[in-house]
Write a structure and sequence with these properties.
CATH architecture: 2-Layer Sandwich
Largest sheet: 7 strands, mixed
Number of helices: 3
Shape: elongated
CATH class: Alpha Beta
Oligomer: single chain
Distance between the termini: 9 Å
CATH topology: STM4215-like
Radius of gyration: 15 Å
Structural class: alpha+beta
Helix content: 10-25%
Number of strands: 7
Strand content: 35-45%
Length: 133
């Protein structure tokens, strides 16, 4: 299985940003909020709940990812974070890179984190349920 952030990045690259003017404004990276870009997205991996224990030793995980959106414009950052939430929240029964995602659930709405270098930073957290195919 891939690191959860890799699959989430591919989901967002394939759906949220397709045919959107925001594509050039909000490039998505993993683990790093690019300091050189005014508008960008970072996906960070966090621990979630403990893995499920099953008799057949199946690997069923409950990781969490945090998505940070940095934007020059407060409203655009809020809207882009909302678009990410709309894309991921409630996704279920999908397979990505040999991993079955039974559910992706947003744990909070767009949350303003801080203002840094004239950029607004928003965050959204997602609980994931997944297993190897």
């Amino acid at each position: 299985m891939n690191v959860p952030s890799q699959d989430i990045k591919e989901m967002l690259d394939s759906e949220v940003l397709v045919d959107s003017t925001a594509t050039a404004l909000f490039p998505i990276e993993r683990a790093v909020l690019n300091e050189r870009k005014s508008n960008c997205v970072a996906i960070l991996d966090f621990s979630g709940k403990k893995p499920q224990l099953t008799m057949d030793k199946a690997k069923y995980e409950f990781p969490t990812v945090q998505i940070l959106v940095k934007s020059v414009d407060y409203d655009a950052g809020w809207e882009f974070t909302s678009a990410i939430i709309d894309s991921l929240h409630g996704r279920s029964h999908e397979t990505w890179n040999s991993t079955y995602y039974s559910l992706i659930e947003c744990m909070n709405g767009p949350t303003f984190l801080k203002r840094e270098n004239q950029r607004s930073i928003f965050v959204a957290n997602f609980m994931i349920q997944r297993r190897e195919v």
